[in-house]
Design a protein that fits this description.
- The protein is α/β, with parallel strands linked by helices and 514 residues long.
- It folds into 2 domains: 377 residues, TIM Barrel, CATH 3.20.20.70; 108 residues, Roll (CBS-domain), CATH 3.10.580.10.
- It is 38% helix and 18% strand.
- It contains 19 helices and 22 strands.
- It has an 8-stranded parallel barrel with strand order 4-5-13-14-15-16-17-18, surrounded by 8 helices. A 4-stranded mixed sheet has the order 6-7-8-9.
- α10 links the parallel β14 and β15.
- α1 packs across α13, α3 runs parallel beside α9 and α11 packs across α13.
- The longest helix is centred in the C-terminal third of the chain and has 19 residues.
- The chain binds xanthosine-5'-monophosphate (XMP).
- Xanthosine-5'-monophosphate (XMP) binds next to β18.
- The site of xanthosine-5'-monophosphate has 24 residues, from β18.
C-alpha cells in the first residue's frame, strides 16, 4: 500500500479504469459491496472529538456541516425535509415536479425559517389598519410589523398580541403599537446572544437593532436565538438562513430559465440541473444558457458517470457534478436499459477530473448503509445524495398508509409508472410540468410516451423522524473518519484506501444476518 501513497485511491482507480479501457478488455467496475475501507493508524482521540470536521463542500462557496444531501424526488424532498435536514447540518434539494411558483414558495419557506438577524423586517405605515396587517401577515407569514414613516424613521412596533387584543379591525397601527419612546432597542454590533439576554430580561420577543444614525438595521427575535441554540450545526448562509437547493430541467429552456430565476428570487443557494442522462446536448444547451444569463448561484449538473462527461460539463460552467447512473433503490435503468456504471468506479472517475478543479462531486444513489457514504467519500465524493435511506420518514411528502396495524409511506423512482402518472395529472393543472417530466425520464419524441418505466415503486415502513436516520448516517461518517485518521471530509479521499473483497467477504460483513 505504501508504494502508491503518493496518489490517492480515487486517482489510481480512475487511471486503472482508463488504462484498462484502452486495452480493449472491459475493466472491473466496483460498487459499494465490492469494497471495504482499510483501517489505518489513527491519532484521532474520539469520534465525537471537536477535532473532526464534517464541513462538506456542496458547490461553489456553499458548504454545509455534514456530507448528507436529500434527493430531489417528489417522495423525498419538499420544504419539510429540506428544512429539517438543513437544521441538522445537511442540505435538501427541492424537486421540480411542482409548478415553478410552488417550488419557489417552498424554497422561501426554508429560507424564512430562521436567520441570525432579520435584516429586512416587514414594516407598515402608521395609518395601516389591523385589517391591512392581517392580510399582509397571511402573505408574509410574519408575527409583527415595524411601524415606520415615509422617511423610514422607526415609530414603533405592532405584534400579534397587539392585534389580537383589539377588536375593531379598522384600528390603525399608530393606535396599538408600542411607541418608539417605550421601545427597547439594541445598538448595531450587539450579538444575537447578548440581544437574547436583553429580550429575556425585558420579557419581549423581538428587539430592533439601531445604527448610530438611528436607522433600523434589522430585528433580533427570541425564536431565531432559540433555533440557533437548538441546532448548533445547522447549515446556514451568511445571514444565518438555512441552505437549500432547487432542481430544474432542460427541455423547455425558457420555462426552466424562468424557474431558475424564481428560485433565485426566493433565495435558493444553488441550482441542480437534473436529468437522467447529463452527458447530453440538452444539458449543454441549458448550462450554456444559465451561464450566459449570469445566474447568481452556482450550478450542479447531472447525472453523469464518466470522466469525459465531467470534463465536458465543467467546460460548460458546472461547479458541481451529480454522479450516478442507475445505482438507486428505486432505479430500474440498469435492468431496463442495460446501462449504468458501478458507483465506486463512477465516483472515482469523475472525482479524478473534478477535485483538481475544485468542482464538487455529489455521489447520488445506491447508499444503503452509513458505511456506503464513507466508501463514497473515500472514492472521491464531497457529499452523498440520499433517497431510499430517508424514504418513509415523517418529513417525506405524502401521507402515511395503514396496512393492518402497520404504517407505510410510498417511495417511488421518478421514472416509475406512478410518478409518471402523477406528473401527467399535474400536467392538466400546471402548465409547465409536461416538459419537466418529459425531459427527465423520456428520451422519446415530444409528447410520445416512454414505454419502459425506469423506476420502481414501493411502500416502505414508516420510519419516524428523519433526524434519526440523519444521526445514524452522520455517526457512521465520524466513525469511518476515525478509522482512517481523517480529520476532514476532503482528507478521507486523500488518505483512505479501498480494498476489493470477495463474495465471501461481502457476506461476512453482515455477521449473523445470514
Ligand atoms: P437512493 O439509492 O438513495 O437513490 O434511493 C436516489 C437517487 O435515485 C435516482 N432516481 C432514479 N433513477 N430511475 C432511475 O434510474 C428512477 O426512476 C429514479 N428516481 C430517482 C436519483 O438520482 C436519486 O437521487
Amino acid at each position: 500500500m505504501q508504494l502508491f501513497k503518493e496518489k490517492p485511491f480515487y486517482i489510481r482507480h480512475a487511471e486503472y479504469l482508463a488504462k484498462q479501457h484502452m486495452t480493449g478488455m472491459p475493466p472491473i467496475g466496483l460498487t459499494f459491496e465490492d469494497v471495504l475501507v482499510q483501517p489505518a493508524h489513527s491519532t484521532i482521540p474520539s469520534r465525537q472529538s471537536g477535532h473532526i470536521s464534517l464541513n462538506s463542500h456542496v458547490v461553489g462557496d456553499v458548504y454545509v456541516n455534514a456530507p448528507i444531501m436529500t434527493a430531489n424526488m417528489d417522495t423525498i424532498t419538499e420544504w419539510r425535509m429540506a428544512q429539517e435536514i438543513a437544521l441538522l447540518g445537511g442540505v435538501g434539494v427541492i424537486h421540480r415536479y411542482l409548478s415553478s411558483d410552488e417550488q419557489a414558495r417552498q424554497v422561501k419557506i426554508v429560507k424564512e425559517k430562521t436567520r441570525t438577524l432579520q435584516d429586512k423586517p416587514f414594516s407598515v405605515h402608521p395609518d395601516a389598519t389591523i385589517r391591512d396587517m392581517r392580510r399582509l401577515q397571511k402573505e408574509l407569514k410574519t408575527g409583527y410589523f415595524l411601524v415606520q414613516d415615509t422617511e423610514s424613521n422607526l415609530l414603533g412596533i405592532v405584534t400579534d398580541i397587539d392585534m389580537e387584543t383589539t377588536e375593531d379591525v379598522s384600528t390603525q397601527a399608530f393606535n396599538i403599537m408600542t411607541p418608539r419612546d417605550r421601545l427597547i432597542t439594541v445598538p448595531a454590533g450587539t450579538t444575537l446572544e447578548e440581544a437574547e439576554k436583553i429580550m429575556k430580561a425585558n420579557r419581549i420577543k423581538k428587539v430592533p437593532v439601531m445604527s448610530s444614525e438611528g436607522r433600523v438595521v434589522g430585528v433580533y427575535t427570541r425564536k431565531d436565538a432559540e433555533l440557533v441554540r437548538k441546532y448548533p450545526y445547522a447549515s446556514r448562509d451568511n445571514k444565518g438562513k438555512l441552505i437549500v437547493g432547487g432542481a430544474i430541467g432542460v427541455k423547455d429552456i425558457e420555462a426552466e430559465v424562468e424557474r431558475a430565476y424564481k428560485l433565485v428570487d426566493a433565495g435558493v443557494d444553488f441550482i441542480i440541473i437534473d436529468i437522467a442522462h447529463g452527458d447530453s446536448e440538452n444539458m449543454k444547451r441549458m448550462l450554456k444558457r444559465l451561464i450566459k444569463e449570469n445566474i447568481p448561484v452556482p450550478i450542479i449538473a447531472g447525472n453523469i458517470a464518466t470522466s469525459e462527461a465531467a470534463k465536458a460539463l465543467i467546460g460548460e460552467g458546472a461547479r458541481g457534478l451529480k454522479v450516478g447512473i442507475g445505482p438507486g433503490w428505486a432505479c430500474d435503468t440498469r435492468v431496463v436499459a442495460g446501462v449504468g456504471r458501478a458507483q465506486i468506479s463512477t465516483i472515482a472517475s469523475v472525482a479524478a477530473v473534478a477535485v483538481k478543479n475544485n468542482i464538487a462531486v455529489i455521489a447520488d444513489g445506491g447508499m444503503r448503509n452509513p458505511g456506503d457514504l464513507v466508501k463514497a467519500l473515500v472514492a472521491g465524493a464531497d457529499i452523498g445524495m440520499f433517497g431510499g435511506m430517508f424514504a418513509g420518514t415523517e418529513e417525506t411528502p405524502g401521507k402515511k398508509i395503514i396496512r393492518g396495524r402497520k404504517f407505510y409511506k410510498r417511495y417511488e423512482g421518478m421514472a416509475s409508472d406512478s410518478a409518471r402518472r402523477r406528473a401527467k395529472n399535474a400536467l392538466n393543472t400546471i402548465q409547465t410540468i409536461g416538459s419537466i417530466y418529459e425531459d427527465r425520464y423520456s428520451e422519446t419524441e415530444e409528447g410520445e410516451e416512454q414505454d419502459a418505466p425506469e423506476g420502481r415503486e414501493k411502500e416502505v415502513p414508516y420510519r419516524g423522524p428523519a433526524k434519526e436516520v440523519f444521526i445514524y448516517i452522520r455517526g457512521g461518517v465520524r466513525s469511518g473518519m476515525s478509522y482512517i485518521n481523517a480529520y476532514t471530509i476532503p482528507e478521507m479521499r486523500e488518505k483512505g484506501e479501498l480494498e476489493r473483497i470477495t463474495q465471501a467477504g461481502a457476506v461476512e460483513q453482515y455477521g449473523d444476518i445470514i
